[in-house]
Amino acid sequence: xxxxxxxxxxxxxxxxxxxxxxxxxxxxxxxxxxxxxxxxxxxxxxxxxxxxxxxxxxxxxxxxxxxxxxxxxxxxxxxxxxxxxxxxxxxxxxxxxxxxxxxxxxxxxxxxxxxxxxxxxxxxxxxxxxxxxxxxxxxxxxxxxxxxxxxxxxxxxxxxxxxxxxxxxxxxxxxxxxxxxxxxxxxxxxxxxxxxxxxxxxxxxxxxxxxxxxxxxxxxxxxxxxxxxxxxxxxxxxxxxxxxxxxxxxxxxxxxxxxxxxxxxxxxxxxxxxxxxxxxxxxxxxxxxxxxxx
Length: 294
Known about the structure:
Blueprint: E1 3-10, H1 17-25, E2 43-48, E3 52-58, H2 68-81, E4 86-92, H3 99-108, E5 115-120, H4 127-140, E6 145-148, H5 160-167, H6 185-200, E7 210-218, E8 224-232, H7 235-242, H8 247-263, E9 268-276, H9 284-289
Parallel strand pairs: 1-3, 1-4, 4-5, 5-6, 8-9
Antiparallel strand pairs: 2-3, 7-8
């Protein structure tokens, strides 16, 4: 009996959704940073073994939107709840119901789809706070499974895949067995650059950047030539992204190229440029051009 299904992973920004998926997949597929709202689009991570195919949908964090990009992200995340076979809701052990989580719990009420509650980052909190969180959230909605975990350290994560399979229906293999993600190489390249920018830039800037791959060519020898625009909203941000003597931009490119060469399996000649597009996060045309469209 072969089982298959789609599992959406929801939670407020920066609770460890992408970290968990990367850990369960045993490979880095979603970008990770300590900045909130890192994930902007749904991405399917595909886990296949002898008896099941599990498709994890990594969603943007559900939050109070402040611009059209935020509205798109929240819509994408909420839309995924009604289209999957199982929902994994991730929070952290704060000892109380976070205001952002209250919005998600409201969305989960009345949802007949099986639901897991994973309380993440338990190594960062006391046992009392973990226990209080488990109790509060367990009463706030009906969950089929409740598991305290540390996705980063792999604590209490070894049984998650087996539990997921338990709730999946019989079904076909939706993707080829050797496929691990349903995204194009251009998307992966853009996200790789954005991840490095997130790690290097100041807190207020990352939300205002996007990355567009303008050229991506594979050469006859298996190497790659890539050109990318890092788009920001202010002239002052452009200067910060470039850095003194171009050092910050150079470091973003170097770090991104190192990662790209692993999954592209060849040398990468990467050229990065910085362009200002004022208030692009509220510009419907630019959002569509950058791929943020329903």
